[in-house]
Every structure is written in structure tokens, then in C-alpha cells.
Amino acid sequence: ILNVEQSPQSLHVQEGDSTNFTCSFPSSNFYALHWYRWETAKSPEALFVMTLNGDEKKKGRISATLNTKEGYSYLYIKGSQPEDSATYLCASLANAGGTSYGKLTFGQGTILTVHP
Amino acid sequence: NAGVTQTPKFQVLKTGQSMTLQCAQDMNHNSMYWYRQDPGMGLRLIYYSASEGTTDKGEVPNGYNVSRLNKREFSLRLESAAPSQTSVYFCASSYRDWGNYGYTFGSGTRLTVV
Fold first, then answer.
1. Is B85 helix (H, G, I), strand (E, B) or coil?
2. Which chain A residues are within 8 Å of B50, Cβ to Cβ?
3. Following DSSP, what letter does each residue of B2-54 receive, concatenated?
4. Cα(first)–Cα(last) distance of chain A, in Å?
């Protein structure tokens, strides 16, 4: 079983602050890294899917980077807004004999609260 | 486009009762999954179906069974519910291209076993 760890567990920031979270995952047999955003009373929604070492993805004010050799990914939010308040999940796929079967292993998430 | 539909949204069971959680997707996804979410534990994989006609155990399969009825539907059955199965259950689906596509999740089923 892969161990995916996220830090910090929770974060409180003021509107306009920039922030970042960390996801660490086993680097052996790496296949892909997913980031999801999970708002209260809703379902997780995919933000980014990343596979290549050194890759960077961006969606509006949110971006993510990936280091597959050392097993970590960062999620950045620039100029946080109250609507960014959510739990941010990362999840890792391992390559098992040439395929992963899509079995994501999730971290426990980082709970972000942005205060107006 | 409904995406992933889970039913029921809420359920209370007595210990020993059985029930089936239903999940259907209309996105022509090949793969489907059942996860449970418990406080402090994150999402844990119960069972998955990489493609129609196949199912396999995930991290926490004990006490559950699944059926991939067709490409659209993937049900989760609790044969004899136990209080330890109190949880929020999420169904998800995806294309078999996990390097490019993420999961689509259903809205969840909150199950309480008393």
C-alpha cells in the first residue's frame, strides 16, 4: 500500500494571501499524481493530473508542480479568495506490472480556509 | 449530463441488515470504483472494476461485495452490516487513461449502522 502524505493538515489564510501545500508519495513505480478539490457538501473534483517529472500545470490562480524522482508535488494558490476554501486532496497511482488499474491512493487532504 | 449518480444519499441500517448501494455513470467510462471516507482516514478503496466484466479488491474489501452489472453500473453490497461500516461511501468512474483523466465522483452515500 502506497503512503501518500499531505501537509499541512489545515491552513487558515487571509483573502489575498498566496499559499501552498505539499503532497509526498513513494517515487518507486510512479505512474501519475492527481489533485482534487473537495468543497463541503459536494464531491471531489479533479484539478490536475500529472505524470512527467518537472511538469507544471496551471488553472487560473492555482498551479501544481511535480517531482517524481524525490516523490513530491506542490499545489500553489495565488491571491486566495474565500471561494477557494475547500479540502485539497492529492492521490497517487503506482505502476503495477505495466498498468495501474487506476487505483488511486489518496492522502488525507489539506483543509484550506480563506478568511475575508 | 448526470455524471455519476449514487443512490441512496442517506441510509440507516441495523446491525446485521443488508443493503446495496447503487452507482451509475453516463460518461462511457471503463473503470469504476468504490471508496469509503472516514474521519482522519482519507478516502480508502474498497473495490474497483478496471473494465466491464472485471472486479477486484482494494484496500478495505472485508464485509463488502460488488457487481459490475454492465458498463454503466457498479453496485456495492453489504451482506451483514456492522457498526464499523458506518461511513460515507463514494462511487467514482474514469477513463482507462489515468495519466490524463481524473476520476468523476458521485455525491456520496452517508451510511449509519446502529
1. helix
2. 101-102
3. --EEEE-SEEEE-TT--EEEEEEE-S--SEEEEEEEETTTEEEEEEEESSTT-
4. 40
Question: Residue B109's pLDDT is what?
Answer: 96
Question: CB distance from A108 to chain B under 8 Å?
Answer: yes
d(CA B20, CA B23): 10
Q: Using DSSP, state whether B81 is helix, strand or coil.
A: coil
Please report the pLDDT score of residue B48 as a whole number: 95
Which chain A residues are Cβ-neighbours of B40 within 8 angstroms? Answer: 108
- What letters, b where the CB count within 10 A reaches 16 and e where it falls short, cover B82-106? eeebbbebbbbbbbeebeebbbbbb
Q: Are strands A105-106 and A86-94 parallel, antiparallel or unpaired?
A: antiparallel
pLDDT of residue A1: 44
Q: Angle at Cα B47 formed by Cα A64 and Cα B14, nearest 5°?
A: 115
Cα A19 to Cα A47: distance, rounded to the nearest angstrom: 16
pLDDT at A98 over 60: no
Task: Compute the distance between CA of residue A40 and CA of residue A73 in angstroms, rounded to an integer.
Answer: 24
